[in-house]
Amino acid sequence: MHVHLDAIGGVAGDMFLAALLDARPDLADGALRAIRAAGLPKGWTAEAVDHLADGLAGRRFHVLPPAHGVHHRDHPHEHHHHHVAFSDIRAMIERSALDEGVKARAIAIFRLLAEAEGAVHGKDPEDVHFHEVADWDSVADIVGAAFVIEALGGATWSVSALPLGGGRVKTAHGVLPVPAPATARLLEGFETLDDGIAGERITPTGAAILKALAPTRRMPSGVALAASGTGFGTRVLPGLPNMLRALLFETGAAEAAPGRESEVAVIAFEVDDQTPEDLAAGLDKLRAEADVLDVTQAAVLGKKGRMMAAVQVLCRAPALERVAAACFAETTTIGLRWHLARRFELDRRTATVDGVRVKVVSRPAGPTAKAEMDDIRGVPGGQPARANARAAAEAGALHDRKTDTDD
Q: Over the Cα atoms of the chain, what is R_g?
């Protein structure tokens, strides 16, 4: 699957989500469930609704506060703001019932925002407090976007030139130029255009989602257009529909592959001057980094017959630079190698049986199940009891799929 985004009116989080749900309405229920699972406050609702503007049909994405009707976003900086720390939003998502992949993507998007805000205001990302993206409409946009991106599996992405807009905007930091400083940092490297229409055309949330996707400018050739969708924003632009269009292409190769195809970054380096205890602690911290998929180490012989630890880190491609920086921070290596690799992934789900999490994998010869050892470790009665508990949980997960959730 390849997705191309036409930023005709601009890009905002709600426009991105609306466009993809218009193209893939089968994902709407799952996206709304994810937003509720993330902690949507009691009485609030989120919905994707049909919308008609400038003679074109598409969708709008709304977040509805209790008994107040539609929460309009005519300008993302003009309604009342509260301040929420990046660390608080991350903690909220981490303790939510969201699938792990959606959690990681949502946190990664918020982290990009925190890094941009931190760079602009001279703060560590961990110390950043969000203003313009602290309201629940932005949280819902990012969580919903993370769900859709995960649901599309190994889709590749491209985007048209982005309208920069112009003028000034009111923010919690006063009146700032458009695009706002943090948004401008997120848009570094993207091709832009000036279509003569002022105002904020790319919101911070929209810019962070684009940055996380790491899209190219080119659509693939020789592929079939499978679906299209239109997401509308709330602003009215003079002589131009305020819409984002999504074009979904079937690439063929992914459909014939043994699993979902995606791109990952592989980082490799060796360490020979760090104590085993300290290296183990550093690698544990690397494993806890958002977007890190796996960290392995092996004992090898280096120069002068020295024992070394060969480390390999697998992470999502958009997070390469941040994860590389973490490798330098947590280990004593002074150089590393990296490359991008394509991978095939089998579809998998997580089921919970009698309090035990079980990963169910769809294999060509039929599904298999593996219980989470951390959930079985405390079973009393020694190894035979643990083995029985594991077998029962795995059999239950294969027999009853009602408890399954996409992983």
A: 23
pLDDT over 90 percentage in the chain:
48
- What confidence tier does 78 reach under pLDDT thresholds 50, 70, 90? very low
Three-state DSSP class for residue 261: strand
- pLDDT, one tens digit per residue, over 245-266 is 999 998 764 444 556 667 889 9
Amino acid 333: pLDDT? 96
Contact criterion met (CB below 8 Å) for 39 and 170: no
The SS3 call for residue 226 is strand
Cis amide linkage into residue 220, ω under 30° from 0: no
Classified as helix, coil or strand, 396 is helix
Q: What is the mean pLDDT of residues 290-315?
A: 92
Burial class of 119 by CB neighbour count within 10 A (0 to 12, 13 to 18, 19+):
middle
Q: How buried is 289 (Cβ within 10 angstroms: 0-12 exposed, 13-18 middle, 19+ buried)?
A: buried
**d(Cα 84, Cα 211) in Å, to the nearest integer?**
22
335 CB neighbour count, 10 Å cutoff: 7
Contact 60, 184 (CB under 8 A): no
| b/e 16-41 (16+ beta carbons within 10 angstroms → b) | bbbbbbbbbeebbebbbebbbbbbbe
Q: What is the number of other CB atoms lying within 10 angstroms of the CB of residue 131?
A: 17
Structure tokens, 183:
């948004």
User: Strand 162-163 to strand 307-316: parallel, antiparallel, or no bridges (unpaired)?
Assistant: unpaired
Q: Are 269 and 331 in contact (CB under 8 A)?
A: yes
| 285 within 8 A of 326, measured Cβ to Cβ | yes
Q: Classify burial at 108, counting beta carbons within 10 Å of its beta carbon; exposed 0-12, middle 13-18, buried 19 or more.
A: buried
* Residue among 265, 277, 403 at smallest CA distance from 341: 265
Confidence of residue 172 (pLDDT cuts 50, 70, 90): low
Encoded amino acid at 332, one letter: T
What is the C-alpha to C-alpha distance for residues 197 and 242, in angstroms, rounded to an integer?
11
- Region of 320 please: left (phi>0), alpha (psi -120 to 50) or beta: alpha
Strand 405-406 relative to strand 2-6, pairing: unpaired
